[in-house]
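Contributing new records

If you add data, match the layout below exactly. Sequence lines come first and carry their own label; structure lines follow with theirs. Keep one chain per record. Anything else will be rejected by the validation script.
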Amino acid sequence: MRQVAITGIGQTKIGEHWERSLRDLAGEALLAALQDAGRETADALFVGNMLSGMIDRQNQLGTAVADWIGFHGGVVKIESACSSGASAFRAGLMAVASGEMDSALVVGVEKMTDAAPTEVTSALATAADSDWELEQGVSFVGLNALIMRRYMHEYGWQHSDFAPFSINAHANAVHNPNARLPFPISAEMFQQANMIAAPINLLDASPIGDGAAAALIVPAENVRSEERAVLVAGSGSATDTISIHSRKDALFLQAAYQSAQRAYAQANVGPQDIDLFELHDAFSIMSALSLEACGFAERGQGPRLGLDNEIAPKGGRIPICTRGGLKARGHPVGATGMYQIVEVVQQLRGECGETQVDGARIGMAQNIGGSGASIVTHILKAI
């Protein structure tokens, strides 16, 4: 398998794009990635998306997007719930690394705000177990609330101990022109936010939105002299049970651990080598669980990193959500994994301004599907 590098990236602002379609958003990000790479096309197109068939009434999304931008190579759409973006990137990575393709475009795209909130909630819930979770009427915020409640009970944390995760995300989003919620929040605001599903309140949860992010990947041997190229050093994926109650340990993200270990081994690095981590903070409890599963914190001690200011871009031991994360950049579900990839590339290029991690050379992105059922981890290195 040959090494692969990212040479171009593109993204749209996340928001309520009433006047724009799925293909329009995807096209903007893809054309931006091509322009950034100084290319006109690629051999294949991989599209990550979860909800187009359910809330946008558009299957064959890959072909629709290709048609929109005038692309005539091989196209495929990939769905793995909220990890669809990273899954599409991994598929493109394997195609180029194997030698089957010499270049690939990857885009994650989602358009969620045209549908009624109840319809979106119902569509998102289909990523849970349809027989044992969905049929009982539980939503994803409800499932995460159950996990968070048990975590607090087992390890003795208070709800306020999770506030630093959200505060950090919002502070970083202020400096991201593409963020959905670019404003700061305080600990008092966190505590007073409206409850959604106890103990999760409005400021524990990420907002949905419309958006797209894209990248162009090529063999690394062709671009080693390009300063802005970024090496894909490690890639790992793993799955767990789709239902939470079937897991041996509901408070440990086994698939996060396994996918991270595979990516670490491939990149020949460990947690101590990672300069920044774009984790999947769909809910604040997921920040704690991801940090623990990936080796940055001991079991039950994830919130300590936030309380000790170890997650900030400036001076933090493991900076997370440096462009706002899902919490404040926004979470257009099928696009999120590609936003994470794009943001790590920006960090390794030194393009993040006020939230630039000094001396960043190795970054990690982890995209979670469902409540931990499908998890994909990538490690990127500056060339």
